[in-house]
Amino acid sequence: MRKREEILKRRDVISFLIDCRNSFKFFCEELLKYTTTGQEIKIQPFQERWVSLAERHQRLVVEAATDLAKTETLCVLYPLWCMFRTENLRILAVASSKDQAKGNILDRIKLYIRENEMLRDLFIPSDAESTWNASEIKTKQNHWIRVVPYSHRARSYRANLILFDEFDTVEDVNLYFEDIVSRLFSGGKIILTSTPKTFKGILYELKDRAKKGNLLGYHFEKTQVLVKKDGSPAYTCPPENVTYDMLKDCVSIWEERHPTKEVLDKWFEQQKWNFMKNQMCEMIGDSEDSIFPFKYIINSIDYNLDFNETLHSDAIYCIAADFATSEGARADYTFLTVVEKRDSKYTVKYAEWYQGKDDEYTKRVIENLYQKYENGNGTMVIADSSNAGKLFIKKINSIGIPVVEQKFSQAERNTLLRTLSTILMGNLLVIPKSYEDKSAEYCDLLKEQLTGFVRAKSDKTFAEIYKSTATHDDGAISLAMAVAELTKYDMMDVETPLLGN
User: Fold this and answer.
1) Does this chain's domain 4-223 share its CATH topology with 294-497?
2) What residue spans define the domains of the chain?
3) What pLDDT is stored for residue 501 in this prediction?
4) Alpha helices in 237-340 (DSSP H)
5) What is the separation, in whole angstroms, between the first and last Cα of the chain?
6) What number is the average pLDDT over the span 211-233?
7) Is 168 within 8 Å of 201 (Cβ atoms)?
8) Could you give the C-alpha distances from 383 to 267, 319, 480, in angstroms and in order?
């Protein structure tokens, strides 16, 4: 434990406390002095900037490279400093799991207090042995810190300060807006910290909404481990165009902890995709073997478009059905996608997906979709004919709806995905994403599935195959079926395939 005399070093206690209140850096380096693991605290300029931003903004989102002490700085030291300067502060520590929040945040805060005589005297009440536990602490100043997992249980509490560490590891974005943001007292703050993890997490969604003007009051701070020697950004080009040569003359923002040479060596160890994510906070969306480059997926999204039933006389329509082939929690969905081809553009009009429904239900859905999107000019249905698909196709034919059969040998599957990739990279695909309907959920699902496809080699033939690394691929396959079929036909001539296709 650090004793009072060791901390003060014969300095006047009043002036020392004033300096602690006025300076985060002084508070950490002089009052705390050492981390909970015994390392001497040296607050870096980028950490001071984080705290300055936290003081100025009610919503702070920090993307930081791995091992830059973002959790320690903003979820442990900063709330401690806030507690030191005020009374009656209520803090919620949110994490993707309750155990993670206990170990990463609350336990560290308690250890800092218990191992510092001045903080012990200031914060620990007489009944701490019985009232301080793994989930909650209360202090003499009526401060209260509570650990909550990222779940609906967070609704049971209210707070002035919400800390959400590694927030980009969770995927239920709606829960954040429904059960986390709503827990703030008026004037409260939220601090979110993470290294980017996924395209379907909270970070991407927040930045996406902010970019489109649907999210106000958030400040986004990106802290990369490498910068130019003058402190300016390491590059100004799109992140997917970054090369090692652009970075080799850069320097680390924390040389003592992350020597420049060691950081640069990680380019070769981790390869570009992981290096850019872990060190530069850039989700470039595709590795070297990606089939659907992320930048093209983003370019295809129309935020002003929703699912709709508007028909055009100069368009043709395709309803594609990819049927579920297994049961259980990880089973694929039956996925139905409606695509319009008009003026060489392929626009998703509607999508529906579900599990556990019988053939009669799916037959009714297809019949209903056919009636909605039959424009009297050209509407077709294409369906997966593998497994039990042939029998189902007969049922659809029996109600007067002609169906094109889609087979799924490896070569045919490759052709579907290759065709979709060509249309996507030709900027001919339009994916709706309106926050007013289900198209937003569909768009996010599709991003996940498309970015999950990579090139690989067959174990048996060594031929190139397209492999999905995502949990599901049914939405992407359904879309590929529709697009590939539509490429065979010219406008207003659904009966005659284009020559050469």
Assistant:
1) no
2) 4-223, 227-280, 294-497
3) 40
4) 244-247, 260-280, 294-299
5) 77
6) 92
7) yes
8) 44, 8, 12
